[in-house]
Write a structure and sequence with these properties.
The protein is an alpha/beta fold. It contains 7 helices and 9 strands; from the N terminus they run βαββαβαβαββββααα. β3, α2 and β4 form a beta-alpha-beta unit. It starts with a strand and ends with a helix.
C-alpha cells in the first residue's frame, strides 16, 4: 500500500524540489495543496496522512489577516503535533511549526540569501534525520525572519547570522530554516522573480556570487538533501 504525504505549497515557484523528486521515486502518493494560487485548494480539515510537508513562501506567519490559510495551517500543525504525524517544515513552514508549538517568530538581524554554513548542535548530531550529513555543511538560505525554540522543542542546527536553523518538536516534527529542497533551477528562478528584493540589498547580497556558489555547491547539496529525505521518510 502506497504511503500518502500532504504537501502544502504557498506560492508556485517554491515547490517540493528534491524532496518531491525523492517521494515520487520512492512511490509515495503526494496530495498537493496550492494555497495561494486561487484554484480552490485549501488546508484539509482531516489529517489522514503518513507525513506532512510544509514549504516556504514570501509571506510571514503573522500575516494571517492577509493570508487566512495561515490560520488553518496553525490548526493543522497543532493537530499533527498532538497526533505525532511526521512533519517537515521548510523556511516559512519551519516558522509556522515553531509558532504553532508556542514560540515567537521575529525579524532576524539580517536577511540570509545565498549559501551559508550551518553547524549541528549536540542534539542535532544525535538526531537520526541528520545522519550522514556531516557536523557542518553549506545550505541555501532565503529568509528575513527567524523562529524561537518552543518549550517542547530542541535546537538541532545553528549558524553565525541566524542562530536557530533547525528544530525538532516532540519526536518527529521538524523545521528547517534553510531550503533543503531547492534545485539549481529553482535558485535561478528565485533570483529572477525576486529581483526587486535583491536590488534593495545591493552591496549586501552578491547575486553573481550566489550563481557561482550554486554551480560549485549544488551537486553535493543534492546528494545531502536526498540523504536527509531517506533519513526522514524511512525512519
Amino acid at each position: 500500500m502506497k504511503k500518502m504525504v500532504l504537501m502544502l505549497k504557498h506560492i508556485s515557484i517554491e515547490g517540493g524540489g528534491t524532496i518531491e523528486d525523492y517521494l515520487k521515486s520512492n512511490r509515495w502518493e503526494i496530495e498537493k495543496r496550492e494555497l495561494q494560487d486561487g484554484n480552490g485548494n485549501s488546508v484539509p480539515s482531516k489529517l489522514d496522512y503518513d507525513a506532512i510537508i510544509i514549504l516556504g513562501g514570501p509571506m510571514n506567519v503573522y500575516e494571517e489577516d492577509k493570508y487566512p490559510f495561515l490560520k488553518d495551517e496553525d490548526r493543522l500543525i497543532k493537530e499533527a503535533i498532538k497526533k505525532e504525524i511526521p512533519t517537515l517544515g521548510i523556511c516559512l513552514g519551519a516558522q509556522l511549526i515553531a509558532k504553532a508549538a508556542g514560540a515567537k517568530v521575529t525579524k532576524n538581524k539580517v536577511k540570509e540569501i545565498g549559501w551559508y554554513k550551518v553547524s549541528l548542535t549536540d542534539a542535532g548530531k544525535k538526531d537520526p534525520v541528520f545522519k550522514g550529513l556531516g557536523e557542518s555543511f553549506y545550505v541555501f538560505q532565503w529568509h528575513g525572519d527567524t523562529f524561537g525554540i518552543p518549550e517542547n522543542g530542541k535546537l538541532l542546527a545553528t549558524a553565525e547570522l541566524c542562530t536557530n536553523q533547525a528544530l525538532r518538536v516532540g519526536k518527529n516534527i521538524y523545521g528547517l530554516q534553510f531550503h533543503m529542497e531547492v534545485t539549481d533551477k529553482m535558485i535561478y528562478e528565485w533570483i529572477d522573480t525576486y529581483d526587486e528584493e535583491l536590488q534593495s540589498l545591493r552591496g549586501v547580497i552578491d547575486v553573481e556570487k550566489i550563481r557561482r556558489d550554486t554551480k560549485s555547491k549544488f551537486s553535493s547539496y543534492k546528494d545531502r538533501a536526498l540523504t536527509f529525505c531517506k533519513n526522514f521518510f524511512e525512519r
